[in-house]
Amino acid sequence: MIQAASGLASGKDPVKCAEKAASAAMDSLAALGSRKADAVMVFTSGETTASFVPMLHAIRNLCGTGSLTGCSGAGVLTQEGEIEGENAVAVLAVVSDTMKATPFFIRDLKGRDEEVGREIGRLTRPLLSDNALLIIFPDTLSCNPDQLFGGLYETAGPVPVVGGGAAAGVSAGSKTHQFCGGEAMTNAVSGVVLTGAIVSSVGVTQSCLPVGKLRRVTRSEGNAIRTLDGIPAVRALVECLAGPGRQVSEDLHRLAPHLFVAFPSGAGREMKRGQYLVRNILGVDPEDGSVFVGRGINEGELISFALRDPDGARDDLKAMIEESLPLAGKPDVGLYFNCCARGQGLYGLPDIDTSFIRNTFTDMPLAGFFGYAEIASQRGRARMHNYSGVMVLVSEAPSC
What we know:
With 400 residues, the protein is an alpha+beta fold. The chain has helices at residues 14-31, 52-63, 113-124, 145-156, 233-241, 248-255, 310-328, 344-347, 352-360; strands at 2-10, 39-45, 68-73, 75-78, 81-84, 88-96, 99-106, 133-138, 161-165, 178-180, 183-185, 189-196, 198-206, 208-221, 224-228, 231-232, 259-264, 276-285, 290-293, 302-308, 333-339, 366-371, 373-378, 381-385, 388-396. It folds into 2 domains: 2-205 and 313-396, no CATH class; 210-308, no CATH class.
């Protein structure tokens, strides 16, 4: 059996927020007959750094467990809604005799990505089984995700990995924080391994949608795409946006903040829904026609340009949820790791993503946060996503 409940609170006093959120979750569990939790996830937002330790101790005392993991974010969410850019706490409390949650915490991430990935693999490998789920919260500001996930795969193999990159507060110099037990550290990775008689479903939704055809990189240097299909990359971008009566030069200027490059990551190298990675366009060189991207580029790989589109993001979210229905059945608990560039910044309105999830999975406890990146495995390897939402649904495995 898996029982779960969440609590959400905001206000000026971070510790009182933590107490209110934890109390709400535990009151709901008490109504189900449980007086203490077996495991807790905690997500915070706002300028709460100085209060992290007392916040975590308050939550542990109220929930009756030291099995706690989580991180800081740019916002938090539960099935009740989303809170962005202010002091807030989301608490998810779980009781189960069929699922076990084993938290972990690794310090000193910066410059040690592969080593830390291997250490996570060594720590979690004895726990991994066919239905295990690894959830991680790295310090995004100190992380090279390709190296981190490479080290993890080297020692743990193709275990399903989900999570989110922790986010910092809005003030200058703010750092991200990772939680485990009663500790809050920066430059670290926190996480939890879920094992037992469980089944899980993971979906990825994108807010940047491909436009135009797939193109092959025919010349590159570092993170610069020099040519695509033998023509300058900027010209290929212009051709992608060109249409009847459209002033492409004006469109480039107007659409620049909404333009990205997408890399197919699924089998067959097609731009299928949820099976591509989005990276920022950092700039262009009008003289030689290069496009500079937020990752290294290899000659021969396929790319597509993508546009950030709120209407398309709604449709993609709906499609992801519908695809999850036959896999999830009636889930016992959900997690949602959302990009800090989604929410009100994308839609112009709050609570869009959580409303879609709540309307489909009625009464399902949900918790998550707005982060700097989202994590979900594709083709057996953990991947860092951007401008996306990662939905995780967990249920007790059906008895044979």
